[in-house]
Every structure is written in structure tokens, then in C-alpha cells.
Amino acid sequence: MPLINIIPGEKIPVAPMNVRLPAWRIPGWLLVFWWLARGLFRLTVLAVRYWWLTAPAVFALWLRAEYGGLVLVGVVLAVVAGCAGWWRWHPSSWLRFGWYPLVSRVRALVVYRRRWASVMATCGLATAFAGDRYVPQLLKVRCDRYGDELTVRMLPGQIPDDWGQAAERLAYAFRLQQGQARSTGRPDRVVVRFMRRDPLAGVVAPLPVAEVPDLGGLPLGVREDGQAYRLRLAGSHVLIAGATNSGKGSVLWSLIRSLAGGIRSGLVELWAFDPKGGMELAAGVPLFARFVYDDPDGMAGVLEEAVKRMRLRAARLRGVTRQHVPTVEEPLIVLVVDELAALTAYITDRKVRDRIKESLGLLLSQGRAVGVHVVAALQDPRKDVLPFRDLFPTRIGLRLTEAEQVDMVLGDGARERGALCDRISESSPGIGFVVLDGVREPVRVRFSYLTDDDIRQLGRDFRRLCDIDARDEQEVTR
Ligand SMILES: Nc1ncnc2c1ncn2[C@@H]1O[C@H](COP(=O)(O)OP(=O)(O)OP(=O)(O)O)[C@@H](O)[C@H]1O
After folding, report:
1. What ipTM did this prediction achieve?
2. Hey, which of 204, 223, 245, 400 would you mutate to test ligand 1's pocket, going by the most ligand atoms within 8 Å of its Cβ?
3. N or C, fewer C-beta in 10 Å, the chain?
4. Segment (H or E) for 85
5. Helix (H) or strand (E) holding 149
6. Which residues are annotated binding-site positions?
7. C-alpha distances in angstroms, 432 versus 116, 221, 232, 346, 422?
8. Ligand 1 center to residue 251 CA distance, Å?
9. What residues pair up with 80 in beta bridges, in sequence order?
10. Which of the pair, 277 or 326, is modelled with greater confidence?
11. 417: pLDDT confidence band, cut at 50, 70 and 90?
């Protein structure tokens, strides 16, 4: 036995009173028992949480023990045949209540929960405080045909925009390509959607035409969630921005088609401006009340005529109503401009350019209430049209060449909230982002595509009845 024990440690300063705490000696069997109990509890929790795995496994083991392997194989085959039958008999209910819930559970376990904590840390969404690590909680995973939707409880101090900024990084971390975050009704939650397959990959065929167009929701295309995208024209002007070949023409033609019922009956008058030589809009001439192209002076004149109509109408409606309701006598006037910059920036004659700018400014600032609307397409949303951009309440961003252009078109912070217009592939014309009323996060949309034949057919089917009447009258007098 050594004479002196040397115990390393800090020197305890002398105090007026020294207290010796009792030392508890815990028997080894109690420790082992505690660890076993804790392990068993965790196993039980896991078995209950993943009941959809454990219950069939236990049942299969019991079957095999009780009736043998053959019976087990028979039961498995019967279940598979039952599922296949359900799928054949009623595919939508099978997918909704059978297949996707199963896929959701498997993907939640295999893809998301397994790497959740590490991905949260590497994407900057986990945090540490007072020596403890805090990770957002993954509450639910819901899969559908096109993607996975994760409901997450955010950490205190986080907002949905933080997740919007991290969404793309998260998507790549989980080996997917696109992600978007959106807020929910609950302030502590956010929903992140990752895309596995693009629901907008296919071309959208021309949509049915209503006899009387619903100006509060004109159907122009399909949204990512499969619903129709409806544009509110009443009380608005529409700006469509997109690089060359991004599909601006398809947005214009989808809109013209959605108004076609009203064009035929005379409720809607389309005035078309095609400063790029008439190539884009010429096929729809029977639908237009005015069609001007190429001639800057002519275009300035027609715009001034529109201003005159607007002023006369405003004078008539003053004190009668605050919002114009289209009738055949007082139709909705929609000015469709194929390339706004060609009107406002590229015209060399300064006088004509100033006339155009003045008229456009007046129409954009005063036309909405009296039923005169401007729908304009634009390639470059930068300085050239700066004075007008903010006068368009409804804006559509198709493929854009630079990330900074996105906020110029869709408003500040739109790109951070998920409008990745600069990432839209050149092979997907007609896809764009829009901001819906009351929804913070921009929504991805594919506009319907009208071929030249469709446009000619539209012109034949919905040509203006008043033009036909006028032509008949001429023939009778001749
Ligand atoms: N919604 C759509 N769906 C599928 N394909 C489309 C769609 N829109 C356009 N395209 C295809 O992309 C091509 C270019 O479209 P469009 O002419 O409308 O582009 P744009 O943006 O108007 O181009 P530009 O600025 O040169 O006039 C079309 O010829 C067509 O093949």
C-alpha cells in the first residue's frame, strides 16, 4: 500500500466552512437494468412509430411459425394481387390511399429522416445555443406523382423566407433538383416542396373557350399543382417578360383565346400592336378591332385614339360607377402589345416616341377603372421601360437571362421566395412564374400553346360579329 495517494485535480481554496457531499454507490445490476429498460422503451417507440413496417413483419413471422412458409407466400401473393386489382379497378383511389402514403413513409425514412440532422446543419438551418444543438423538426412527408412535400416545425427565429433561400440547397442535399418553400396557416411551420419529376414537362393544349369570358379569372394555363392558372384582367394591366423564345407569344395567344367568346359577341375589343413587323399577331387579324404594326406614327395615333376613348368613357362614368362593366355598347378595350420596348425605346423619331410614352403612361395610370387594359410583352425588363414597369399590377416572368431581372419583373424578393426564372430551361418555352392574389410565394405555370393552325381556327371561329354584320350590309347595298 502506498504511503501517499496523489489525486490530480484543482486545488480547492480554503473556505470558512467545508461540506462533504455523500457519495452514492450504484450497484452494477441496477445500471444494467436501467440501460436495458431505456433501450426497450426506445425500441417500443420505434416499433409504434414505424408500425407499417413492424406490424406486417410480426404478422409474417407469426404466419410462418403457425402455418409454414407456403401459407406466408400465399398471403403475400394475395395482398399483391389485391393491390394490383385495386389499381386496375380505381387507379386514383389506389394512388391516393394506397401507393402514395406508402411511398411517403418509405421516402421519409430512407431519404429524409436518415440524413435530416446533417443536412439541416450543412444548409445552415440548425443552430446551437448554450452548448445544445437545435434542429428543425420534420413533422410530415407527403409524396405525390411529381414531388415530395415536407412539413417542418421551424426553430424559433426562423421565417419561411429563410427556408425559401435554402430550398434549392436542400433539394440538392437530398439529391433532387428543385425546391420551393411556402408558409402555412401556422406561424411555426413551413412546407418545403421538392420536385422529382416536372409536372409541367408536357405541352399544354389550348384550353376551352367560354362564351362569356370571366374577367376575374381567365384560364391561361396549368399550375404546378395541376390546377388551372387563372389571370385576373378586371382592374389590371398585364406585363409579360421573357427572353427571346421564352414563349411570350403563347401567353398572349392564351389570353386572346380566353377572351375569344367576348370578342365574337362584342363585349371585348382587342387592339393589337405588333411593332416587330406584324409577324406574331397577324394570324389573328379577324379578332382585332385595330391592328397596327411597323409604322410608329400609326401606332402613336392608335394609342392616342385609345386615350381619347378612355377619357370620353371616364367623363360618362364619372359619378355613375367606380368600375366599368363591359357591354356591347361600351366594350372592354384590351390593348395587346407584342414588344413594349419597341414602342418605348427603339423608335428613333423622338417626337413619335414621346407621343407613345405619353399615351401609354395615361392608359396605364387611368385605364383600369374604365375598362381599358394594356397587356404587353417585353424582352428586357431593364431601364428602357422603367417608368412603366410599376404601373402593371399583374406581371408574368417567363425565362429570363439574369437573376437580377426576376425581382424587376415580379417584385422585390420574388427570386428569394422561389421564382427562379433565370433557371428555366430553354427547352421549356411557355413556363413562367406568377404571383397569385394573397399567396406570398410565386407559382410556376405553363401556358397553353396555340399552333399557327389553332390561331387561324380561332380567327375563323370567333371573328368579330360586328365585322361580319358590316360586311353583310356592304354586300346587300352592292
Ligand atoms: N406554351 C408553350 N408550350 C410549348 N412550346 C412553346 C410554348 N410557347 C412557345 N413555345 C415554343 O417556343 C417557340 C418560341 O415561342 P414564342 O415565339 O412564343 O417566343 P417569344 O418569347 O415570343 O419569342 P420572341 O421574343 O423571339 O418573339 C415557339 O415556336 C414554340 O415552338
Report:
1. 0.96
2. 245
3. N
4. helix 69-89
5. strand 147-153
6. 242-249
7. 31, 10, 16, 26, 10
8. 9
9. none
10. 326
11. confident
The string of pLDDT tens digits covering residues 137-155 is 999 999 998 899 999 999 9
Closest CA to 395 of 180, 205, 239: 239
Partners of residue 130 on adjacent β-strands: none
Nearest CA to ligand 1 atom 5: 429
From 293, 398, 449, 450, the mutation candidate for ligand 1 (largest count of ligand atoms within 8 A of CB) is 449
Per-residue model confidence as pLDDT tens digits over 194-251: 988 888 989 999 999 998 999 989 999 999 888 899 999 988 999 999 999 999 999 9
Q: Which residues' Cβ are closer than 6 Å to ligand 1?
A: 203, 242, 244-250, 280, 379, 429-430, 447, 449
75 φ/ψ angles, rounded to the nearest 5 degrees: -65, -45
Q: How far, in Å, from the CA of 41 to the mean position of ligand 1?
A: 61
Domains and CATH numbers, the chain: 86-195 (3.30.980), 218-472 (3.40.50.300)
Q: How far does residue 247's CA lie from ligand 1's centre (Å)? A: 3
276 Cα nearest atom in ligand 1: 27
> Is 367:314 a contact under the CB 8 Å cutoff?
no
Q: Which three-class secondary structure state does DSSP give residue 100?
A: helix
Q: Which atom of ligand 1 is nearest to the CA of 204?
A: 3
Question: What would the grid cell of residue 195 be?
Answer: 420536385
112 residue type, one letter: Y
Model pLDDT for residues 445-465, shown as the tens digit of each residue: 999 999 999 999 999 998 876
